[in-house]
Design goal:
The protein has five helices and seven strands. Helix content is 31%, strand content 34%. The chain has 166 residues and is an alpha+beta fold. Strands 1-2-3-4-5-7-6 form a seven-stranded mixed β-sheet, with helices on both faces. Helix 1 packs across helix 2. It has one domain: Gcn5-related N-acetyltransferase (GNAT) (Aminopeptidase, 3-Layer(aba) Sandwich), CATH 3.40.630.30. Helix 3 links the parallel strand 4 and strand 5.
Length: 166
């Protein structure tokens, strides 16, 4: 399995995973195509041979202090294999390379697996958006990560902090 930059040729595979992962609030194909084409977004895919089994994106305007994880999803068979963590770490590295100091994301309150993953790399809950995910009326949990702390914690010789950057 490998991580690589997403291209417009990956759109159909990405949309299949998007629709399966987010059946009630999937992005439209037009929205995803615009994200893939944006000069301010970096999308990566997880590929198994030639098959896309996951994707994720970060909006990181070069030189801006903040970045936003836009989306991360894996095909059901690829979940629980560590690929989501690999993808998240790669997206954070892309945001760092673009000059971001802080990364934000929104996650469904009822997605305990994703929330645990984000906490494990150092994201902290900083707010809520009531009834954000429609039509399900599910709150969004707003999470934030200090990239400098995250980067320092992953450097060789860093003291382990239980997965949480302080």
């Amino acid at each position: 399995m490998s991580l690589r930059r997403a291209t417009s040729a990956d759109l159909d595979a990405i949309m299949a995973i998007e629709r399966a992962s987010f059946p009630t609030d999937a992005w439209s194909e037009a929205m995803m195509a615009a994200e893939l084409a944006s000069p301010h977004s970096i999308y990566l895919v997880v590929a198994d041979s030639d098959r896309v089994i996951g994707y994720g994106g970060v909006r990181a305007v070069r030189g801006a202090p903040d970045a936003d994880i836009q989306t991360i999803a894996l095909a059901e068979a690829a979940r629980g294999t560590g690929r989501g963590r690999d993808l998240l770490v790669a997206l954070l590295a892309e945001a760092l390379a673009a000059g971001a100091k802080t990364v934000f994301l929104d996650v469904r309150e009822d997605n305990s697996v994703a929330r645990a993953l984000y906490r494990s790399v150092g994201f902290l809950e900083v707010g809520r958006r009531p009834r954000y995910y429609q039509p399900d009326d599910i709150d969004a949990v707003v999470m934030q990560l200090d990239l400098a702390s995250w980067d320092a914690a992953r450097q060789p010789g860093a003291i382990a902090t239980g997965g949480v950057c302080s």
